[in-house]
Design a protein that fits this description.
Blueprint: H1 2-20, E1 36-39, E2 44-47, E3 53-56, E4 67-72, E5 78-81, E6 91-95, E7 102-104, E8 112-117, E9 121-126, E10 129-132
Antiparallel strand pairs: 1-2, 3-4, 4-5, 5-6, 6-7, 7-8, 8-9, 9-10
Length: 133
């Protein structure tokens, strides 16, 4: 009888604990504590650190390094950039015509530009200053 009561108490306790895990879901259902952020281009939750295109912070005056990721739309006309510590979780940059430059819209305070860098990489500029590559 004691085992049954103990097992029941443990079961109920685990249910109460499980209710708190994932309690930090955003409006899209992405669990931030598990590293998920909503991607506007993929229309689902993604982990920025698991994306194929990752860029490192070029600023050397910080005591830590940060990184960002880029996700392209299938037709490569839009690029979603996840900039840490910005108000928006991600910024959509668009490409005009056959250009290899993606730019932020006019409704964003700062100007972001994504360009190819060297043979296999990219760099992001904020107001004409390289911040990631």
């Amino acid at each position: 009888m004691k085992k049954a009561i103990l097992c029941s108490a443990m079961f109920l306790g685990s249910l109460a604990f499980a209710q708190n895990v994932g309690g930090d879901k955003d409006v899209h259902g992405c669990i931030g504590s598990a590293g998920y952020t909503y991607s506007q281009i993929k229309n689902t939750c993604v982990r920025v650190f698991e994306q194929k295109i990752k860029l490192n912070d070029v600023s050397s005056d910080k005591s830590y390094n940060s990184m960002t990721a880029v996700i392209f739309s299938k037709n490569m006309t839009r690029a979603e950039v996840f900039i840490p510590h910005e108000a928006a979780k991600s910024i959509i940059l668009t490409r005009k015509g056959k250009s290899k430059i993606w730019k932020s819209g006019k409704n964003i305070k700062e100007s972001y530009v994504l360009t190819p860098f060297k043979k296999t990489g990219y760099q992001i500029k904020k107001d004409d200053v390289v911040i990631y590559q």
